[in-house]
Amino acid sequence: MIVLTRLNHSRFAVNPDLIERVQAAPDTTITLVDGATFVVTESMNKVIEEITDFRARVLATAAVLSRADDPQEER
């Protein structure tokens, strides 16, 4: 999940796998695959950075777990 901020300064978490598009015109609008939209204070570049960081954490965690499950892996 990534945490974003609505224009009223309330924070919410969204699953980045459900984001269909991010627009900046001029406010940043997140559109989910189900059509739900959210206007956020973060810039489009910041949202993309958050999504990239989330995906990197998922891949890093998967690699650690994969090594932990491999009994032949040297430690």
From TrEMBL:
Pfam families: FlbD. InterPro entries: SwrD-like. PANTHER family: SWARMING MOTILITY PROTEIN SWRD. This is Flagellar protein FlbD. It comes from Microbacterium protaetiae.
